[in-house]
Amino acid sequence: MKLFLHSGRDSTHEKVIEVMIKAVSAVLSDSALHRSVLHNYTSRDASSEYCGCLNGGWCQDGGQCDCAQFQALGDRCQIIPNHGQDRDGICRSWGQHHFETFDGMYYYFPGTCSYILAKDCHSAVPRFTVWVHNCRSCRGSVYSCPRSLSLFFANEEEIHIRGYQVLKGEQRLTLPQTVHNVFIERLADYILVKSTFGFSLAWDGSSGVYLKMTEEHKGRPCGLCGNYNDDGSDDLSSSYGINSEDVAEFGNSWMVELPHEPLCTAVEDDFPGPCSSESEMDDAIEKCSALLFFPFISCHDNIDPNPFVASCVSDLCVSYDEETFCRTLVEYTRACSHVGYPVREWRDSFPSCVDGCEDSFVHRDCISCCPPTCTFEKECLGTNLHCLDGCYCPDGMILQNGTCIAVSQCPCVYHGTAYPLGHVLEQGCTVCVCMGGVWNCTENNCTSECTVMGDTHVTTFDGRIYMHTGKCQYVLVKSRGNTKFTVTVQYSACGESQEDSCGHSVTLVVDEDVSRQVTLNREGKVIIGASMVVSLPYTDDVVAVRRLTSVFVGLRASFGLKLHYDWRGGRIYLQLDSTWKGGTLGLCGTLNGNLRDDFLSPAGMIEGTPQLHANAWKLSSACISPVNVPIIDPCEMNQQNAFYASLCDVLTGEVFAACHAYVSPGVYYQQCRYQACRCGSGCMCTALAHYAYICFKHHITVYFRAHVSECG
């Protein structure tokens, strides 16, 4: 049915139009009908001349623009408020020339230069700055022209994103990557940039950029995205502090002059609209009005379609083709997905809008920012978009090394090495078979071990390796059975010296009797109860404690627990015999051969990140711990320790080569670098000793100290 009639205003045509409106009313909600262009279109004078109004505006007598078509504002209809109730404070820009501010004001700005999209304007050193580089000579569809971003964070060099390549200075980054307190990753069709200070950015690899911030940033940004103060009326504030309705004046004020680039031409104040004639705009409106009906109507209350219909009209006036049309539909559905209201399977109604997914991937309208993996480990920051659109694995499949696999095909991980389905692993007296990401082990009477290395790295009984950075007292392991015991670890804050490990102490409490608790502290002392220091060896009816070496203290309990504590280097090796299988909780996990449930909380929930897991097991609510933040690479902060980090190369070389076939050095190399950069030679030597200990369990003895003089 053709919705727009090009005719005079005789009574016959008015009756036809009236019938059409009633027919549409029967299938549209009141809110959808209110948005419909039908009423506005039939009320205009079809003989009027097109005079350069923007965003679907019609030229009236005296050169005035009628902006009712898309509820636009301004003398040229240059601004359209997005009245959607779930915008979520997202600033977005797409297709080179379309912008919607944090506070929901859409405008069309045909700039061809580089601009400040958003910047922290209320800090002496801006915490963030985002430049958008538009194409200087875009011909044809705006979606086919190159666009790129430059990101600047406090005291960091430029991060440049073009396509899916990310450069820091001149160095190309392999993703995922952490740069100081910023985490960058590729997920589906997006590059995601997340920070620890409430800044989040998504880039679609071609033209779409989407910014979201926490409320602590309200009133602080400036640039083309506006000031994020919940007041759209002052969004067009120029770089020199003038609030203007002139889009060109506003946009030009945020232009960035790039070194080694010719001077870019500013947009003229009276720049022409993208539609060169009324008939051209008529055709585009008829095509773009699809956004006002099924299947998009389900999102109308959440995201107002008017700005997106207007942007669609502008794009089709420049390049009237199916690919451009489909991209305009994508932008609306994407906005809906970003706030958690995806328009599912909308492409079924538009078969020409192919998804372009390759291999085993399918198009998904709502991909979690933290999709499940075979290990179920997630790194998700609080400012994420609700969900993303793009090519990803079908439902029930998991992305593993770039390929979609069934959960039942997941490999099993042990000490950082992934083993395929069906692999048989013999470890001491235990024989385990990999089955769908879970080790299925024999019931032989042997021990399982949980390890802590330094104040960050934990390996659970079931072999899951993770990091957390809290400085609290945590439950390392707690019994579920009739025999009640708890082992806690107290992490201390690091001092100013970078030469030693941040210390911790270990405490065993049996039957909840704190008067008989045993604490091994960072000074090598053994304390019974609250304060009684005892000499070694020490024995009572439950525990026996003795000094094993110059740095190790050993504790053995009558109920099948053995603990070796390196008080100087911060290592803990905690063993339980097979009677405790499936009977533990805490940082050390569940001891059931299934590393997927190792992050089980006291409330019975499986936590999504190492930080959340650790926080669930801290003993004091007054202790502040990080939540949902990426762990920062200390090598970025302590460059004076780069030499010690370089000595970790011995792990991957000839000295440890005999062990590589049994235990992959990769994760231990990363641990070594982390510890070396954080606290120098002592921590580096401890990390090497830890890998040597793991190798020794596989009957491989490594004398690394003879090759690393700093550890001699």
Automatic annotation (TrEMBL):
The record ties this protein, via PROSITE patterns, to:
VWFD
Gene Ontology cellular component terms for the protein in this record: extracellular matrix; extracellular space
* Start and end residues of each VWFD domain: 89-265, 448-624
**Protein name in UniProt:** VWFD domain-containing protein
Query: Which species?
Result: Silurus meridionalis (Southern catfish)
Pfam families, sorted: C8, OTOGL_N, VWD
Locate the coiled-coil region(s) and give their ranges: none
Q: Enumerate the UniProt keywords alphabetically.
A: Disulfide bond, Glycoprotein, Repeat
